[in-house]
Amino acid sequence: MSSLTSKGVAVVTGASSGIGAVYADRLAKRGFDLILVARNEERLKSVAHRIESETGRKVRAFPADLNDKASLAKVEALLRDDTSITLLVNNAGLGSVAPILQADVDTVTDMIALNITALTRLTYAVAPAFVARGSGTIINIASVVGIAAEMLNGVYSASKSYVISFGHSLQNDLSGKGVRVQTVLPGATATEFWDVAGYAAQKTASITMSAEDAVDAALVGLDNGELVTIPGLHDGEAWDRWEADRRELSKKFGNSKPAQRYGVKSTAAA
Fold it and tell me: Is 199 in the active site?
């Protein structure tokens, strides 16, 4: 049991390796105790033991397969009921580089369940608890392919587009209620993601960022109040312009008559 002052408990999913393990390390060093969630119990306990030994923080391994309904329900209950939890990192996910004619539909269905359904259910579990206490932080890990949709497998890209859109909605719904929501869009990152996805060579490509650099940048973005953080985007104002254009365009969709370019004689009243 740590005697150090704690910033509360951070729950990190997908914490046995890669980005999740780095988040766990960095958050412990920032003063959080941890609950680490992942399927691989042996690796998860190894990460938990290492971080606890190095930082003196209290670290609990919580083995769970978030694609299993019973396991997912246990993590949801934890997030609803444990009042010491102050931060959630929704990092667990699956990826693929296979195009539709080569991808297995059961595999991509599992991807949807983890990348979308589990992330959504965990967020729905913790958000009301944070609102009730008037504070809390949710960090959802998306990807740049949520915007650059043609780069990898279409279902993977679409799942990350969902995370981006969900983050916008959460920020709108929770504004003024004491809950911070950050959406992080890493680019290619040197993790086991590429081994699982079937393209291990990407880990050593010149455009690939280390997991440590990606997480460190994301946490600085959180400190700076960014709603969306893209560690590899050097022109930060490019996102601001893109987002402003998106919001402006959304104002132009509400019309009772089809656009003239379609040549449709409208039945709407003049």
Answer: no
Residues 156, 162, 199, 262: which is the catalytic one? Answer: 156
Q: In whole angstroms, what is the distance from residue 9 CA to residue 31 CA?
A: 9
- Per-residue pLDDT in tens (0 to 9) along the chain, 270 residues: 345 778 999 999 999 999 999 999 999 999 999 999 999 999 999 999 999 999 999 999 999 999 999 999 999 999 999 999 999 999 999 888 788 888 889 999 999 999 999 999 999 999 999 999 999 999 999 999 999 988 878 899 999 999 999 999 999 999 999 999 999 999 989 887 766 666 666 666 778 899 999 999 999 999 999 999 999 999 999 999 999 999 999 999 999 999 999 999 888 665
- Whether this model's pTM surpasses 0.90: yes
- Torsion sign across C-alpha atoms 243, 247, 250, 252: negative
Cα–Cα distance, 103 to 158 (Å, whole number): 15
Rounded-to-integer distance, Cα 208 and Cα 191, Å = 10
**Where do the domains of the chain lie?**
9-262
Q: What are phi and psi of 213, to 5 degrees?
A: -65, -40
CATH of domain 9-262: 3.40.50.720
Buried b (16+ CB within 10 A) or exposed e, 24-41: bbbbbeeebbbbbbbbee
SS3 content of the chain, % helix, strand, coil (to 5): 50, 15, 35
Contact (Cβ atoms closer than 8 angstroms) between residue 96 and residue 108: yes
Residues in the chain: 270
